[in-house]
């Protein structure tokens, strides 16, 4: 069986750190570093996350487990897009968001709401935003190669959620910078993008998608 690899052809810009952000809320206070006592109920923390973004999903459940051991009750709040999540975070309806890309991808949200959000620090440095194509497309090795080849991809770049910072960076920074006026960025959801990618790669068809690293898709298609 021929092995099909997925390759990210370029980073879209300076990578953001994955950041744990929190704000004052109606529930319990955010845990202090080194606070490992769980002898009493310390209140409820509402933890917001986007289940479609699996890096944040796994971190959310890890935090739920650890905060529970510290004596907090954790209410899990699944939100469909980044915009509503930041609004809820800034308003105190959500206490913590475990997978913010505040430096680049979510910079516009931080500019709008940053005075009401506390950055609790990075748990991963070096994350990057990428545009990815299957490795069997041997003539497409850079963003420059995409220009003039829109017909190969049906004029489409397959993206994720409309409110994602990756969507904004692709549509308003990368595509104009590389002259990709013949392309349309198609948005729906992370799951929809991955389904399109899987179907195209199974048939060895041309496809270009918005991705990021670290992300399990690279391991799944290698």
Characterise this structure:
This protein has a three-stranded antiparallel beta sheet with strand order 1-7-10, sandwiched between helices. The longest helix has 16 residues, at 54-69. The protein has helices spanning 54-69, 82-91, 107-113, 143-146, 165-177, 190-202, 216-220, and strands at 6-11, 18-22, 44-49, 73-78, 96-100, 118-124, 128-134, 156-158, 184-186, 209-213. With 222 residues, the chain is an alpha/beta fold. The protein starts with 5 loop residues before the first strand and ends with a helix. The protein contains seven helices and ten strands. It has two domains: 6-14 and 127-220, D-Maltodextrin-Binding Protein, domain 2 (3-Layer(aba) Sandwich); 18-124, Dipeptide-binding Protein, Domain 3 (Dipeptide-binding Protein, domain 3, Roll), CATH 3.10.105. The radius of gyration is 19 Å and the shape is elongated.
